[in-house]
């Protein structure tokens, strides 16, 4: 089964990747809105993408990692100084965004609720 990790906020994200060792396995990172106390989110695309991503994770390489990163609430995300927007390693411009960590593979916004695209990102090899 895919090893799942959850990180909330930019500083926690930085700390996580300081010590994280994937042992050569694929790593996918989902940058998404932070759900409120009621479990709801300000991000419509995130809400639509979450079930698709969860379903496709079940079909993905069991020897891989999936890191769900909650970027914050709407004011945090909309701040032009948001670390996720400014960090050259993340370059997150739209939510949700899924990346193959360390590679060019990336899905953004509405692409993240397309099962075929998510499956391809999770399962295609780098070559």
Automatic annotation (TrEMBL):
This is Thioredoxin domain-containing protein 17. It comes from Phaedon cochleariae. Signal peptide: none annotated. One of its GO terms (molecular function) is protein-disulfide reductase [NAD(P)H] activity. Belongs to the thioredoxin family. Residues 7-124 form the Thioredoxin domain. Gene3D superfamilies: Glutaredoxin. PANTHER family: 42-9-9 PROTEIN-RELATED, THIOREDOXIN DOMAIN-CONTAINING PROTEIN 17. Transmembrane segments: none annotated. GO terms for cellular component: cytosol. Pfam families: TXD17-like_Trx.
